[in-house]
Backbone:
């Protein structure tokens, strides 16, 4: 439309008419003369508005969902981080509790045997594939550790020190094939020599080929001269199998060691031997067998059941 005097006059007239209609509509309230026109316009444009609303709302909802999702993701990430921290703390607490339990057992066995020990922690393991079964501990010459000292834990004999550095030492484990220790049977005092067999039970050769031995018998270390490399009385293991006596000079036993060589953590190096042989006092208490419960079933005949001759 060209900007002329007539067009400007028409625009002013239309604005004046619009204000007049608004004034009449407001003053008329519910009885407004333009109410019918408004309803007609609503009938025409309402479906279009609803269509636009339904088309726009999913987009808005999606945007809101993405925004909320980001917020939820942040909260979830924070919760997962807190959960991981709690798990780490619980794991650390469990490990500390385990070490405390091991230390308690170690101190108990040292007290019963009157062993002067230096506590240490396993920091490395040696290869077990065709080589030697060894561990490295975090105690060395600076801590008073010397070669050929007995190493034990809260369960029993672990091994002996073979190499000593300033702050670390190497321990040959009792299940190594090159490991040999003198043993003594509980009660009967039968002497023998135990040798390691890797992940199999220890092999013990008793000096008395006619010795009376049975499954479940227990062994301790016999001890060495000047307590090097072994102090007496350290629990070794339990007899799991006895070879038949063939009339030889020795008798072969197989002993399950008390120590689990694949899960060592806290150990003690005996830096001072006992003043006297503790004999069997360091062995753990025997577990009493649990009685097998017996169940007695009593059958009571029902009121309507026929009575047999045996029941009369």
Residues:
């Amino acid at each position: 439309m060209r900007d002329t005097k007539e067009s400007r006059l028409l625009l002013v007239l239309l604005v004046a008419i619009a204000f007049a209609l608004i004034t009449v509509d407001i003053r008329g309230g519910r009885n407004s003369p333009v109410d019918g026109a408004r309803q007609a316009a609503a009938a025409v444009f309402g479906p279009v508005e609803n269509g636009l609303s339904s088309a726009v709302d999913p987009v808005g909802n999606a945007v809101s969902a993405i925004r909320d999702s980001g917020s939820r993701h942040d909260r979830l990430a924070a919760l997962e981080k807190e959960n991981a921290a709690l798990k780490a703390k619980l794991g650390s607490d469990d490990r500390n509790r385990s070490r405390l339990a091991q230390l308690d057992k170690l101190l108990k066995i040292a007290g019963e045997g009157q062993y002067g020990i230096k506590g240490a922690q396993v920091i490395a393991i040696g290869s077990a594939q065709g080589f030697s079964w060894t561990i490295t501990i975090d105690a060395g010459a600076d801590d008073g550790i010397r070669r050929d000292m007995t190493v034990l834990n809260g369960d029993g004999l672990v091994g002996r020190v073979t190499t000593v550095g300033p702050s670390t030492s190497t321990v040959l484990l009792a299940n190594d094939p090159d490991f040999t220790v003198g043993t003594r049977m509980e009660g009967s005092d039968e002497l023998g020599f135990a040798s390691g067999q890797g992940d199999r039970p220890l092999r013990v050769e008793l000096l008395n080929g006619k010795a009376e031995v049975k499954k479940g018998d227990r062994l301790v270390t016999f001890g060495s001269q000047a307590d090097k490399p072994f102090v007496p009385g350290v629990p070794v293991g339990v007899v799991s199998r006895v070879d038949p006596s063939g009339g030889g000079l020795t008798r072969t036993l197989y002993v399950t060691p008390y120590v689990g060589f694949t899960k060592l953590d806290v150990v003690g190096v005996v830096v001072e031997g006992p003043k006297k042989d503790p004999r069997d006092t360091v062995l753990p208490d025997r577990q009493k067998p649990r009685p097998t419960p017996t169940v007695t079933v009593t059958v009571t005949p029902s009121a309507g059941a026929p009575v047999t001759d045996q029941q009369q």
Notes: Helices lie at 5-28, 35-113. The first strand starts at residue 116 and ends at 125. The radius of gyration is 45 Å. The chain has two helices and twelve strands.
